[in-house]
């Protein structure tokens, strides 16, 4: 524990504990959104990206570098933006349309598109839903605040939609802003909607960091 020869090992261990804690905090903060769209390797994939973010911390000493400081740099933000919580259903592979974010309100807008022609949906799906999440998270203190938009449900049919997803409120917490888009697929039977394949085709994407 004190041998100078193992100083790097101790430093690496401290930093690994910090990034795993940051990954757990982010998953906890997103709560129900992550539960509905994730893959079996999410934890390890997220830790890998957060380790790269931590390496962008240029102010802390070795052993104390962390995600909160790392995210103050534009290259670190670029590493995390676009992260897919379900690697089997990435946003780019499911939706072929332009997604924009209003940093101030957290509103996510999707350019007009035809769901049958511009979405890859699982067999048996009859409907899909869209939801936006506006998260403020402080990786240094562990505080977070998540605001969700109502779920907009659309039929998978040959027409066009122009979704605009407005979170219920703007989080007031100081911290990193994260804007997320959730896409879920359903099958409607006698007026009831049933999730397909335990959400294997659902998308949760970190569209933007503000």
Write the layout of secondary structure elements.
Layout: H1 7-30, H2 32-36, H3 42-54, H4 67-70, H5 74-80, H6 91-94, E1 99-101, E2 108-110, H7 115-118, E3 127-138, E4 143-148, E5 152-155, E6 164-165, E7 176-189, E8 192-195, E9 203-209
Antiparallel strand pairs: 1-2, 2-6, 3-4, 3-5, 3-7, 7-8, 7-9
Give the CA-CA distance, first to last residue: 40 Å
Share of helix among residues? 25-40%
Order of helices and strands: HHHHHHEEHEEEEEEE
Largest sheet: 6 strands, antiparallel
Sheet/helix structural class: alpha+beta
Counting DSSP E segments of at least 2 residues, the number of strands comes to 9
Which ranges are low-confidence, i.e. pLDDT below 50, for 5 or more consecutive residues? none
| Large-scale geometry | elongated
Cα-based radius of gyration, to the nearest Å: 19 Å
Count of individual helical segments: 7
Mean pLDDT: 92
Strand content: 25-35%
Quick take:
This protein has 210 residues and is an alpha+beta fold. Helices cover 29% and strands 26% of the residues. The longest helix has 24 residues.
């Amino acid at each position: 524990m004190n041998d100078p020869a193992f100083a790097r090992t101790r430093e690496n261990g401290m930093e690994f504990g910090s990034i795993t804690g940051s990954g757990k905090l982010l998953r906890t903060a997103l709560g129900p959104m992550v539960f509905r769209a994730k893959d079996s390797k999410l934890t390890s994939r997220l830790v890998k990206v957060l380790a790269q973010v931590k390496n962008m911390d240029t102010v802390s000493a070795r052993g104390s570098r962390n995600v909160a400081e790392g995210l103050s740099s534009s290259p670190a933000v670029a590493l995390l933006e676009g992260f897919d919580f379900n690697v089997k259903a990435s946003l780019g592979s499911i939706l072929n349309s332009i997604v924009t974010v209003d940093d101030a309100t957290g509103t996510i807008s999707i350019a007009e598109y035809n769901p049958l022609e511009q979405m890859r949906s699982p067999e048996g799906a009859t409907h899909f839903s869209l939801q936006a999440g506006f998260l403020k998270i402080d990786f240094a203190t562990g505080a977070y605040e998540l605001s969700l938009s109502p779920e907009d449900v659309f039929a998978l049919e040959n027409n066009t939609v122009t979704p605009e997803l407005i979170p219920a409120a703007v989080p007031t917490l100081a911290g990193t802003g994260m804007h997320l888009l959730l896409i879920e697929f359903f099958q409607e039977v006698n007026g009831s909607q049933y999730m397909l394949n335990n959400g294997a085709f659902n998308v949760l994407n970190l569209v933007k960091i503000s």
